[in-house]
Amino acid sequence: MRVKNLCWSVLTFMVVALMGMSFASCGSDDDDDVKKEEVSAIVGTWQGTKNKMAETLIFNSDGTCSEESVLEVGSYQLKNRQTGTYIEKDDKIIITFDKFEEWDPTKGKWYDVEKDKETVEMTYSKTDNKITDSDSVTYTKK
Q: Contact at 8 Å (CB) between 60 and 84?
């Protein structure tokens, strides 16, 4: 009789444990989906103009970004590029640029420029789908 009770106890425990593991693996992933939607709204290429300088912002899904500025002076183009990371907080985008480069058209390549890290805060309007920086430059998604 004792062996029979022990078998039933072990069997009951195994069934309950199996059911518990089944329910535990059925968690909701809704939070991840919302986060991906928020990130995907900003990811992409944005263009704006500041004092006759064309500016392009590129936000990548991995949290990295770059900004390229091009100023045309006659037939000559002055180009600058900076790269870094970004985070989103509410309607703000906080960018930290940590690499700066200038284009040398005579050699056809980018050169590093020594510069301290630069943090920029921008405002993102989801309703207008526009980004505005602290210099009032407005970027639209392309």
A: no
